[in-house]
Amino acid sequence: MGRRSQSSSSSSTAWRHLSPWYYLKRPARLALLVVGFVAATFASWDRLSLVRDYEAEISRLDEEVNRLYDQLRMAGIYLDDNPNIENIIKKHHLEVDPVNSVRREKVKEAMLHAWNSYVKYAWGQDELQPQSKNGVNTFGGLGATLVDSLDTLYIMGLKEEFKKARDWVAESLEFDKDYEASVFETTIRVVGGLLSAYDLSADKIFLEKARDITDRLLPAWDTSSGIPYNRINLAEGKASNPGWNGGNSILADSGTEQLEFIALSQRTGDQKYQQKVENVIRQFQKIFPSDGLLPININPHSGAVKSYSKITFGAMGDSFYECLLKVWIQGNKTESVKHYRQMWETSMEGLLGLTRKTSSNFYYVCEKNGDSLSEKMDELACFVPGMLALGASGYSPEKAEKIMNLAEELAWTCYNFYQSTPTKLAGENYYFHGGQDMVVGTSWNILRPETIESLMYLWRLTGNKTYQDWGWDIFQAFEKNSRIESGYVGLKDVNTGTKDDMMQSFFLAETLKYLYLLFSPPSFISFDEWVFNTEAHPLKIVTRHGNEGSSGDAEGKDIADYVIQPLGRKHGKPE
């Protein structure tokens, strides 16, 4: 051997004599090596497990904090950077209702299911066809479901979803489209949705977009009478009325834009929007009948009503009457908006004249054709109980009690529109032949919100939790019959449960929002601070003064001065 080899061998022999390892047999040494390796591995795993447990606990606590923030937000409380929780609880007398908390979370989960289905299959398009798993542009490609959902996402505290939708509005929402849009639907869904998102978030991109689309709608009011045409080409500004209606304008379509246009004038300081829609009301005052019930067809040139056309609180008439009351509320019930209240009260006298009762004590609101009554009531007319309840407080105590009693009776009828069918979902309209109990007429259900809307108003204004229970029954029926893997669908027939293939944008804008508010404290999106347009978009109440279309207290101010700071109808058609 060479010198190096000998030296190495000698050293190795010396080590063996010094180490206890040398005296262990080979199998034992091997076993110790394995045990040591395993122990080291388990120690590593244990450390990894501890890290994972730590991260999971942090995540759980974060979710718990967010849940508590949401509960405070439900009560209309927005925490600053250094909140004194004890003072907050004491000041607001907070009580957590566990039943409502569970129901509210179920509704929130339903909204997420509907929204995520829209995002996955129809992003940026107007509406989702859940069974086909694709989107359709039923409103000219204005992102109707997305814009309609903005305030619902915000109200439910779905921050990431709201941010994603907000970015689409900023980057992709365009209105220069060669499309003949419904002035009414575009106003209540798109203008209303954008203004509500602005009032809630104070993000000016929503106000900019609202002004853009409204400017494109304005030529519809360029008629001899000032009563608008009901359709307009968004790119060309050419307005018209549909031929099927004999060139007439429709009452609901022409008399429901006041809330949104007045709000836009208040927030921009530009009075042209308010002036257009308030001129319509002046024209209606000229032809307003003693019973306050206007026929649904009006000549936009002469301003005259079409004699013997239908009078209804259902389709094509409904939201005009609602709007009269709500403009009065929007203006904070001041003298400058008193005429809206007066017109509404006159119309309610007319409504009383249309109200009948069955032999089983179901109250219903008839339609009128000329001098004849039709014992038919649309589910759309089920907004009436909520409207009556909302307006009752403006009457004398005796009259208010009478109006509220009628509201509650009509709500019972509307609830039974749902309970009387095998699916527990309401048909589109009902007949009361000879005063007998309700019979389904048109039997589809397209996820409409009106009954739930009224239940929300009645619960908030009476404190009677029965209305919450009724709303929960309806929600469960939607979950059972309308929920599928890719969204929510309507029913072609409430008797058989056969499904259609459309998730209406108002299901997210109205139905789910009203359900969420039904199970939330009344101080959350309070009626003292907010008024809802006919698409359930809450707009901030701003006091009005004077009669020249001035914006009163809003002049010279940003609407952000009035908003709650963030936490940091109707014409759907079946397939």
TrEMBL record:
Pathway the protein takes part in: Protein modification; protein glycosylation
Disulfide-bond pairs as recorded: C382-C414
Keyword Isomerase: no
Positions contributing to Ca(2+) binding: T534
GO molecular function: calcium ion binding; mannosyl-oligosaccharide 1,2-alpha-mannosidase activity
Signal peptide: none
GO cellular component: endoplasmic reticulum; Golgi membrane
Locations listed in the record: Endomembrane system; Golgi apparatus membrane
Function: Class I alpha-mannosidase essential for early N-glycan processing. Progressively trims alpha-1,2-linked mannose residues. Produces Man(5)GlcNAc(2) from Man(8)GlcNAc(2), but only Man(6)GlcNAc(2) from Man(9)GlcNAc(2). Has difficulty acting on the terminal mannose of the b-branch. Involved in root development and cell wall biosynthesis.
Protein name: alpha-1,2-Mannosidase
Organism: Panicum hallii var. hallii
Lineage per the UniProt record: Eukaryota, Viridiplantae, Streptophyta, Embryophyta, Tracheophyta
